[in-house]
Amino acid sequence: ACGGASNEEASSEGEGESSEGGSTDFSVAMVTDVGGVDDKSFNQSAWEGLQAFGEENGLTEDEGFDYAQSESDADYTTNLNRLVRKDYNLIFGIGYLLQPAIKEVAGQYPDTNFSIVDAVAEGDNIASITFKEHQGSFLAGVAAAHKTESNQIGFVGGVDGDLINKFESGYVAGAKSVNPDIEVDVQYAESFAAADKGKLIASNMYSKGIDVIYHASGATGNGVFAQAKDIKKNNPEQGVWVIGVDRNQHEEGQIGESNVTLTSMVKRVDIAVQDVATQAMNGEFPGGEVIEYGLADDAISIARTNEEALTEDILSAVEEWKTKIVNGDVDVPSTRDELKTYVDSL
Amino acid sequence: MFSNRTVNILIPIISVLLGLLSGAIIMLAFGYNPIAGYAALWNGAFGDLYFFGETLRQVTPYILSGLAVAFALRTGLLNIGVEGQVFVGWLASVWVGVAFELPGIIHLPLAIFAAALAGAFWGFIPGILKAKLGVHEVIVTIMMNYIALYVTNEIVRNVITDGEDKTERIAETASLASPWLAEMTFYSRLHYGLLIALFVAFIMWFLLNKTTTGFELRSVGFNQNASQYAGMNVSRNIILAMVISGAFAGLAGAMEGLGTFGYLSVKSGFTNIGFDGIAVALLGANTALGVVLAAFLFGTLKIGALNMPTASGVPTELVEIVIALIIFFVASSYIIRWIILRFKKEGK
Amino acid sequence: MDYVIEMLNIRKEFPGVVANNNVTLQVKKGEIHALLGENGAGKSTLMNVLFGLYQPERGEIRVKGKKAAITDPNIANKLGIGMVHQHFMLVDTFTVTENIVLGSEPRKGALVDIKKAEKQVKELSERYGLNVDPKAKIRNISVGMQQRVEILKTLYRGADILILDEPTAVLTPQEIKELIGIMQSLIHEGKSIILITHKLKEIMEVCDRCTVIRKGEGIGTVDVKDTDPNELASLMVGREVTFSTEKTKSDPKEIYLSIKDLRVKDVRGVEMVKDLNLEVRAGEIVGIAGVDGNGQSELIEAITGLRKSTSGQIALHDKVISNLSPRKVTQSGISHIPQDRHKFGLVLDFPIGENMVLQTYYQEPFSKKGVMNYKNIYQKAQSLIKEYDVRTPDEYTKARALSGGNQQKAIIGREVDRSPDLIIAAQPTRGLDVGAIEFIHKKLIEERDKGRAVLLLSFELDEIMNLSDRIAVMFDGQIVADVKPEETDEQKLGLLMAGNTVEKAGAE
Amino acid sequence: MSFFEILQSIIPQAVFFAAPLIFTALGGVFSERSGIINIGLEGLMVMGAFVGIVFNLAFVDVFGNWTPWVSILVAMVVSAIFALAHAVASITFRADQVVSGVAMNFLALGIGLFLTKQWYDKGQTDMVERPFYTTDIPVLSKIPIIGDLFFSGMYLTSYLAIILAFVAWFILFKTPFGLRLRSVGEHPMAADTNGINVYGMRYVAVMISGALGGLGGSVFALTIALNFSHATIVGQGFMSLAAVIFGKWHPLGALGAALFFGFAQSLSIVGSGIPLLSDVPQIFLLIAPYVLTILALAGFIGRAEAPKALGDSYIKGNR
Ligand SMILES: Nc1ncnc2c1ncn2[C@@H]1O[C@H](COP(=O)(O)OP(=O)(O)OP(=O)(O)O)[C@@H](O)[C@H]1O
Ligand SMILES: Nc1ncnc2c1ncn2[C@@H]1O[C@H](COP(=O)(O)OP(=O)(O)OP(=O)(O)O)[C@@H](O)[C@H]1O
Ligand SMILES: [Mg+2]
Ligand SMILES: [Mg+2]
Asked: Which residue spans traverse the membrane (chain B) (predicted)?
């Protein structure tokens, strides 16, 4: 309750009298997780969304829109506060790691709007943005199941937890939907920054005969790409594939003329961020709501860059399943429990 | 002109200034405005009460992890395992914080005690291996860090919670958070832990410099043979040193678990509180007061740095470089002392 | 004049200390030249200047008539100067050969030609009768052997001027005898030797001339044949010195220490003390004579609790103290002046004041309920420093900065002050000058006269003969003879120490 | 999987995992054998990884297929120069060696990330186009069993690492240079009186450790990570330091220790596929490499003796 008071206090001494000179009064900012705005992943994507939003509405960087980068999880709250004190109307927290911090700060500053990406936080001034990664992962699983020749595919996760389990569940469900006998090897590196472990896991998987690996593991995935490319280099005929995550990881898979990136599960944080920012600017801030972006909104999609690998057959199968999902004919599982039920029902 | 004492005080000050100066030169070289950069740093750390509160909050675990490293070093042991001891301390404090319903007067001390105990246990293992089998503490503590990380994650995920990424919030009765401190600093997360950290610094000073145990610990640190000759139990003292060091580190974990965060989430890597503690201890010359001051400097730089990219475009990494240079300068105090003495001679 | 070395008017300063002032040293070819002075007089410093480790502030050095600027040990080596340092400069983990060739290794391609090196070492060692094993590791050979390695090192580099800095301080009488033989054969080969020693007898025995330094000042050079120990001593100290310590006849009372059938193993598990029996009574000094390595160290470690005995019994009064912890042993009334003062006696990085309470810090008035009382500690230290004439700037100075003699006085002060029933003194005067030795001997006799038992271990026969009321000769882990000093002489003792029986020793 | 198949997958994995650690640990051995503690190995690896990647990205058009080799060479040179900071501080300025090493770790990461931001305008570099690839060794890989186990699908850099361990052993224990270097770490004053330039030897040793640490980091980057970011080198330097001590400051010991880590890691991952181990909860496999190391140390490696003068700065004319 007293949060409002301190908010006013803060604004009276805040140095950026930003909103007055701008073409609109609206300003928006975001706090990254430890990846930083240039992580080539969802932080970057979010920032691109904000930049696009700013451009569209004639805002200037630093005043109309801005970001604050976190170096450790202790910094989230500090950064959120920093932005609150600069009078931003809407502040995004990018990544599930910021969930507790957003919840706490939002409670203290009821007059500011917040939005959390990839997690759900309760509060009238918080809009929670989540993605149906399981849907995209499902399609990745479909593509993998069609691509595999050995009927063995793999999944490499970063840290075992709710978020990455969503990727895993969708992927397994997708593959099993195509072929219930397919074997899916699931491994977690317990780190988003262990390329060496990623490579060990990939090496082990490929040598067992697995030919498609979907990774949802940040920089650990570098090792997966390294291993796939190495195999490809030595034996261009061998089918080894990686499915990228979060954004189109086509570039990572390039090796000479060929490319080991079968496809990527693309998550358009930018679309979601832009969308919520626009709503807020128009006075329709979805406070207290959980907005799920999925295949239907094109916020989740499957990259089609690798046309050679992603054959017509596979694409049409993917499209088929996509329609089923969008239409609600298929309810993609997002947890291991749901996955179990789903697989049993096949 | 300068007494020895003044020289000893001058050296860290000069080192810090030289470090900042080098940082300014780097900023200039890359086309940034060093004044704007440092202004941003200053405002980021002390700009208003909120940031000051956050700076102090950040200083709190640094004091404790610095004390942990310093304590071990004073007794001749290099504890690289503070990082892992922080983890288990954090875990233990949060576990007690969520698992029990107790009145605050029991709950909070119990949670803090659990953290110290867990850290102590994590220090006990390398301690006993060193004392009884002569296994080098550096390797064991490095290994224990990884074990702590993975085991803590596992416990958060599958023991305290049922497959969640983070524990529930600790009960209010176990929290170090202080509405009073928070309100005073515009809702910063400053908590009572700072008092604990300062108290522990006092304990370390008292223990090492005023008690027979401290006398023994220091003696064993310098010369094990003479200590044995003087009737001290060398093994016991090595173990004790690691246990106390680990307990301090565990308390640093409690600061995060009961103060800053109030929960523990699955971590994908180290927090660096422990590794930074090595730098803090060394900057503080392994003395209690030195560590407190060094932690303050460290916290200031770290928190202030967050404001640099936004307010002046300077990447935060610049601060890492400045910190490194300050450490170098402090370490090379011999040469600074030599230069000061030169001036002194010429000044006469 | 055919001087091989001339150091003229050398001055060397350290921050706050003038270590050498106006010192002149001229060494003739083929002589053994003694350098004499108290602890800290500046002998080692002067030699380090000659060897190129220090640069003098003033003065000139001539080698074989030619002016030389010795800025580096390499240059000294090239000029034919070799030095055996007071504290050995040997790498413990290397072999004898590796230590000798280090820095000028024979090569085979890119490799050290270790075969050739070993052969060279063997040849050299045979030529001078040094008898070392080229393949042995330094850590496994005796101190005497190590010293020979040091000598070989200089010979290998072709030195014809050898500096020996207190070589005999660490040797047993047998080893000293052998060393003297070695020195003589070196002279025979045309080499010159500068010998630093505190033992006037040795100077009289082997040296041709002697240069004396007092407090950094060169006092002068004398021909040894024209002088006597008393003159040398007074030149060195600047006053008259008495040699044999005055002492009244002892009056032994009840048995304090009794050892029965004691067996002790060393680190490697070899039995070093074998069924040893020994008694020490109140009011007597019992000296243990013996060649190093016959179990003396293990015996003392067993008594003081630093090492476990495998069987037998040690008792103080009637209380069995075998295999008690060192703390329990000290508490039962034993004081121990350890052999190696740096390793065991002191925490060198502690202030000297805190070293003074190393055995008593946990007792009142130095601490109470686990809290130290530094005021009392430093007060105590101050009075001990005064009483035992420990020369130190103050009681807060680190023990490291004190000279060996003063460190030793501090230890003795600490141990004696506890009013123990039994004092175990192991090599209490090693490396000290005559003044310090005199002081320490006086203290030990005083303690005896107060009715304490003293067990003295020394490799110095002089010291044993002068100080002991009873001499126990130790050989191969046993006490093989128990003699009165006035009924024996060094000759007989030497034979006993070599393992001969009393009868046989008496017959010769 | 049959036992042979398991071996066949574990061995190459263990070796590629170990290779960067071997290089870096060898660097550690050189430095520590000369008496200089090197806790900055992590920083040296960071520097090596950074330089290796940046150079590779920038000059791939110039050097073509040779790019990775030139890159690791450049990484070695730059890291050796970077190591000078540690040398100057700890040898000439008599800094506490641990302090200086810790500063190296901060400095390398700071410089690497700062310059990455300057040059690439983002927190991580692109992926290199031309990293190292594994190969089968001609002829040797055809030998039955052995060929499959040891000569197929290996990085040449891994062989380089193993060969270098033997070379290091040879240099340290068979050449005059090695003898002198070790003497400086055991008893610098003895070395000095024998006319050996103690400071010079220590400088050389620290720079060798810089070169090898840089080599380790760049090999890691060019075989495993393929780009540079804050997440590239995360603890590998500390593992290398552990390998130095585990290997008792001996090049072949360090080699063995690093391979041991590789095996343990690989086993923990392969483990889930081995019938006997598949029922073991994941967490135990995860911590197994670290627990095994501690057990090995406690069980049969035991007390290791560090070079005697390790950590002491040598002051001429002091005792
Ligand atoms: N490295 C040094 N730094 C400062 N002062 C020193 C140093 N070495 C020696 N001194 C000073 O020089 C004086 C002479 O010391 P030196 O070691 O030459 O004595 P010494 O005659 O060899 O004594 P001893 O008989 O005990 O060996 C000492 O009193 C000491 O104060
Ligand atoms: N590094 C040093 N700095 C200052 N003074 C020193 C140093 N080294 C030696 N000294 C001084 O040199 C003097 C003589 O020391 P030295 O070690 O030669 O004595 P010592 O009686 O020969 O001892 P030791 O038992 O080691 O032979 C002492 O007065 C000591 O203060
Ligand atoms: Mg001397
Ligand atoms: Mg001496």
From this structure: 7-29, 59-82, 102-125, 190-208, 238-266, 278-301, 321-340
